[in-house]
Design a protein that fits this description.
Blueprint (H helix, E strand, L loop, with lengths): L5 E6 L3 H10 L5 E7 L3 H11 L2 E2 L3 H5 L6 E4 L6 H10 L3 E5 L6 H14 L3 E4 L6 H12 L5 E11 L20 H17 L2 E9 L10 E8 L4 E7 L1 E13 L2 E6 L3 E6 L6 E3 L6 H13 L9 H20 L3 E2 H5 L1
Parallel strand pairs: 1-2, 1-4, 2-3, 4-5, 5-6, 7-10
Antiparallel strand pairs: 7-11, 8-9, 8-15, 9-10, 11-12, 12-13, 13-14
Helix pairs in contact: 1-8, 4-5, 5-9, 7-9
Amino acid sequence: MSSDPVRVASLGMGWWSDVLADAAARTPEIEIVKCFTRSQDKRDAFAEKYKCEVVASYDEILSDDSIQGIIITTPNPTHLETTRRAAEAGKHVFLDKPIANTIADAREITRIAENCGIILSVGYQRRRESHFKWIRDRIAEGAFGKMVQAEANISRDREGKFDLTSWRYTAQGMPGGVMLQIGVHYVDVLETILGRVVRVSGMASQLILPGDNPDVAGLLMKHENGAVSTLNAGYASASEYYLMNIYGKEMTAYYDLHNGLRTLKRYADEVVSVACEKNDTIAEELAEFAACIRGEATPTVDGQRATESLAVILAGITSVKEGRTVDVAEILA
């Protein structure tokens, strides 16, 4: 690898931009050198915290030939325009998930990136977690046998932490609410383990939090291999929690936030704990982005993959609205 870090700029200053900037500081492969957002106070604070140069416009970033890529954490509805401008300026793009709020925008983002010859990498860090990699490796080895089922939960307590002025908590800015904002992560993980989702049935409610979006939601999904999975996502639970149980004919894997990964084999009574070292998933995806820019790698999640993942969530949203099971192909048509 090159000894010099890839020079990038950060566009959009919210809480996730800080998470990404913290991760960038943990890898020598990438360096945030400039930042911009419309709020002067936010960009000044970000520049001070991360020791980068603050600029007064996006144009200043785009016209800087020394900047190779842009980390975009702007609101979902702006992803198309911010990515278009970056691509036309020859800047590679790391785009926070989801790729967009609509399939039309997602496809256009993907097309623009391809036509302009830039790297488009979409941030789906949870698929990189070591316990999920362990499961995928054992599946590839045949240890699980035929894959049959899975169940997952991704939930957080957002009571008292809700900002109704934030785009993240509005139906326009984040359609589907909690399912698009965090559920999409575990849709991605389930698809890496069981294969693509082909059919979705969804339900959602707004029970605790204010605003106009669901704070609890569930999807029942059928995968292309016939396996069935369930996913629940919530912002109304008592605490942060993650769960993923994967069932094969020969072995089952149980993962949850507090107990880690365990397995149970066919005909065995003993549940076996599996030690998986915690890895720095966000730093890894930024290091991969840098490697892609250098021509040393390709994005794990590109525009096409991110569009397919989005389609599963949109199928679930359509199912909730119309009270029917929805084929993902219908959303992609």
